[in-house]
Design a protein that fits this description.
The chain is mainly α. 60% of the residues lie in helices and 2% in strands. Strands 1-2 form a two-stranded antiparallel ribbon.
Amino acid sequence: MRDERRHGLIKRDDQRSAGASDRDRILHSSALRRLAGVTQVVAPEEGHVFHNRLTHSLKVGQIGRRLAEHVQTRFPDAVRALGGLDPEVVEAAGFAHDLGHPPFGHVTEKELHRLCREQGLDAGYEGNAQSFRILAKLAVRSENYAGLNLSRATLNAVLKYPWQYASIGKHRKKWGAYPEEKDDFEFARRNTHSDRTLEAELMNFADDVAYSIHDAEDFYRAGLIPMEFLVSDGPEIDRVIKRVQERTGFTQQQLVVAWESALPFAFDRRYTGTATHRSAVRSWTSQMIQRYVQAVDVSVNDGRPAFTVPANIRHEIELLKGLTWEYVIESPTLATQQMGHRKIIRGLFEAYLEAVSTRPAVLPPRFQDYLSGALADQVYGPLDQKQRQVRTVADIIANMTDTEALRMYRRLHGFSPGSLAEIAPM
């Protein structure tokens, strides 16, 4: 059951497991390659000191795989009782979890959601649901079916939010699949409980570990998180802890303990980039990841996975995230960039929405095929023609890198017409 594929066609002469094959399909996809040009927190062109969405996803996959291997060794009885655990599947899910992340970061996700809903697409746009849609529908492997034809286990492992969109309740804030992916979602979730699978839990925790640690590392090295003040400046420490308290609901005492155990207090000066300083940073990140991986506990509760992370580890992770929020994400510089990014996304959406009904030749050829080709009903499901057009516009924009989005905005609005010799994106 776990290895069953959405469209059958399992290779009998392949030495790889289904999970290994899924991992390779995702690794070789253009959807994953695109993430090299997509913002993690700051734009990729800011420099290699910062992670982009691709380097983040690769680390999530690697940490997830090590988590799975640790759980297999440490909790074999629980793994058997839950029907198995495949490190290849966890790594594949880590690679895939951010495929639906649009250009420029979360500001685009919110803007696309608003624009889609204004045009009558109730489910709007959600990055996690878009990742599932890419795997199930948009990534190309065969002209005979949509998507990558992944196994049930891998599709399930990607579902950080294992429910579909609903217009009321918690399912309207975050969800794992759009209504048009109903058949694929039900295939993935067949014979599972309402919770995440163990493999999805491991992927999700790997995501938390990766970005809490590597964002703190990135912005310390860039001089944006002032570790040197956080070591010695009592009022600044108190201010940051209070802000994290407000965001998380943790107590002051919990965060003070996390502060003392998580922060690299050896970093008592501004980052210099010397070999000694670089090795100190590497030592900290390695020790923290290993500590977090080895801290998890897995058991079985009424046939369901009970995945537990100790409270002190949760506190530390949220504290590290809080440093990035306080010193980077909420900075005025980033806010001005995001205002410009929203305008670019609105301009692209309006231009493509006009083109999709009046000049379809403007659309990338693949998306023209989706709208009018033999797989249209498979790609769009129950959506009517107007809804299919709106979803296509969102798909096109979400498939761009940051640079492609800016270039196409300029081109479609006449600011920079480009050259006929240019290769069209996507």
